[in-house]
TrEMBL record:
Taxonomic lineage of the native organism: Bacteria, Bacillati, Actinomycetota, Actinomycetes, Mycobacteriales
Regions crossing the membrane: 36-61, 73-93, 128-148
Keywords on record: Membrane, Transmembrane, Transmembrane helix
Origin: domain of life: Bacteria
Species this protein is from: Antrihabitans spumae
Name of this chain's protein: Adenylate cyclase
Length: 158
């Protein structure tokens, strides 16, 4: 019974998932599908990460209340502006890299050896870009809050 169900699911999703489409689609359509999936997952994971950081900084980590009035400019304007800009820059930057590096799929031709290597190393490059964006956010948030009250910087005690 379970085996028959697995075979029906496999027949309906020959690539293992309905999200990946079917093998009969052109490689250009598959590339767009993968690009949307990757971009969507990156945006969602970064939104979840941002929410976790906001919860940690505002509720969990002991120290001054960063939701207080003196921190309002940093907490409610500067940090959210950085997050919005980082999302826009990150999405545009990684999408441009994806389009440039996966151009062979758009052109519906087999990739060269160099293009294969670039496609296989793309997850690493996307990870580095995400890391840079998070480091930028840590710097903006830490410096902004630290300029108002140095005790908001973890590890700094008066």
């Amino acid at each position: 019974m379970l085996r028959q169900r697995h075979q029906r699911v496999r027949a309906a999703a020959p690539l293992g998932s309905t999200l990946l489409g079917s093998p009969s689609e052109s490689s250009g359509i598959q590339r767009v599908r993968v690009q949307l999936l990757v971009t969507g997952l990156l945006v969602v994971t970064n939104l979840v990460g941002s929410a976790i950081v906001i919860a940690l900084v505002s509720v969990v980590i002991p120290g001054p209340n960063v939701l207080a009035g003196e921190f309002a400019l940093v907490t409610f304007v500067i940090v959210p502006s950085y997050i919005a800009c980082a999302f826009i820059i990150g999405v545009v930057w990684t999408t441009r890299i994806g389009i440039r590096e996966l151009n062979w799929a758009i052109e519906d031709r087999p990739p060269t050896r160099s293009e294969q290597v670039k496609a296989l190393t793309m997850p690493w490059r996307l990870t580095v870009i995400q890391l840079l964006m998070w480091i930028g956010g840590a710097i903006v948030g830490t410096v902004g809050l630290g300029l108002i009250d140095v005790s908001t910087i973890p590890g700094v005690y008066q």
